[in-house]
Amino acid sequence: MAKRRKSTRKSKHQKDVAIISIVLFFVAILLIFFGFNKYQEKNKENQAELVREERNAFIKKTAPYSIELGKEYGILPSITIAQSILESDWGNSTLASKYNNYFGIKGTSDSDSVVLKTKEFENGQWIEVNGRFRVYSDYRESMKAHAILLANGTTWNANQYQHVTGAQDYISAAVGLQTDGYATDPTYTTKIIRLIQKYNLKKYDVGIK
Fold it and tell me: In the prediction, which pLDDT does 202 show?
């Protein structure tokens, strides 16, 4: 009888150890799971903060010269900044980061331009084409070229962007960009207005018009 009781106690102890091991295993899995989720959330927060800092830095870099150009050529700084954001993807596009062209300004000469793939909206759909774009020495040169283009128009139409230059507010100017054919994107005006409103870019327009 003593041996049987001892065997029973041993069996019960083994079962207890097994149960505790299983519980500890699942607890460890839950800790790992929640810990990984917490890590992912923290990582996303850090990435979002980095993006915010980079975008704020981009605006701070382009705003002062946008104001200067606005006073000289009558282009609202909010429009200049928003277009530079949209056209250059916050300065990250190949055309912007490598060739300092922040506005997708087209080129004609082999000596000061480069051919890159781009997208155009034609016949109700987006198509990929090869486009020739101007190359600039720095972003400020690109910004000035953009202001001159809007102010003086194209070689075939000096009044090409009259609705942009004549606008008294950013909404009218954004509509003018679409009306005057700056871009083929049918949602271009909406994108420009959203950028201006999201980042409060209209504050840079004070005193320009």
Answer: 97
